[in-house]
DNA sequence: AATTCCCGCCAAAGT
DNA sequence: ACTTTGGCGGGAATT
């Protein structure tokens, strides 16, 4: 009884439709956050994370690198990071802002001067000092770091922090972050990375995807830092009403992305292998954003504020699919409010 | 057709 | 030598 499936679509007949959404970095991050955002968590093992989250190692690197760019985690050593918490974000942002300002990162002010007449406007124009940073001490084994996701992520944040205009399109970001190299190829790659970063920050509510007033061009808006600190029971505490936006979907079905065409058409039907299908890692529980949160440390008062909503549900435990290679994930989802999972903002349409 | 962006190959760093 | 990191871009899913 009470099988109130959300049924976001009319066609439930679409049997096992590979959903790209559930595989997104955004969802992964949400899960990652819910998994480690606990006061009793300190160290994070990459293998552990990959195992519990049911994803390949590679993905964890992405998540961790981006989270590290805002101080949520910090590399501790080989195969292991340490959880810092959301409380670190404000600090990190201040630092980034200062750095950005110093480097004369962004200096836009209701500009309007593009060589391209085509473009309407509404963008901004950063300056990003071309290869600043006094030479001398450096550049040796840094060339590698210059293209790191970590750096790109920080620069992306700096753009928001240092700009007066908080609406930025990935194209612009990429352009700025490249400051040169008219090569459209590099742009492509850069934008790909930015999508990844933007998705992560979006799921953390640090930014939000919207559209530019004028053109329908999609862009990202900077959300208050305050919204991320709270982001739980106490919604907006300051001003500015914001809504939660999460692109989390619960539609987990099997199938892969229909990859590989090649030739071999292994149709192992009545296979022997006990165990249906054998896909290296699958997943998992998918719930919206993270949990209550608060400062990394002090937060021993669990059941605080009783009135209101804020109900915790730890049911739903155990994955829907028994993962053969999935260790235990028993205590991970001890909490998390269900409410989150239902907030969307799909209003803005043509 | 254009945009979004997952997947995983494979090359650099690290041990 | 092997292992850990993580650029990078093909091309499938979405819009």
UniProtKB/TrEMBL annotation:
Compositionally biased residues, Basic and acidic residues: 268-278
Gene Ontology, cellular component aspect: nucleus
Highest taxon listed in the record's lineage: Eukaryota
Protein name from the UniProt record: E2F transcription factor-like E2FF
Pfam families: WHD_E2F_TDP
Compartmental location: Nucleus
Region described as Disordered: spans on this chain: 107-142, 256-307
Keywords: Cell cycle, DNA-binding, Nucleus, Repressor, Transcription, Transcription regulation
Gene Ontology MF terms in the entry: DNA binding
Family label: Belongs to the E2F/DP family.
Every E2F/DP family winged-helix DNA-binding domain range: 20-85, 144-224
Start-end of Polar residues biased regions: 126-140
InterPro entries referenced in this protein's UniProt entry, alphabetically: E2F, E2F_WHTH_DNA-bd_dom, WH-like_DNA-bd_sf, WH_DNA-bd_sf
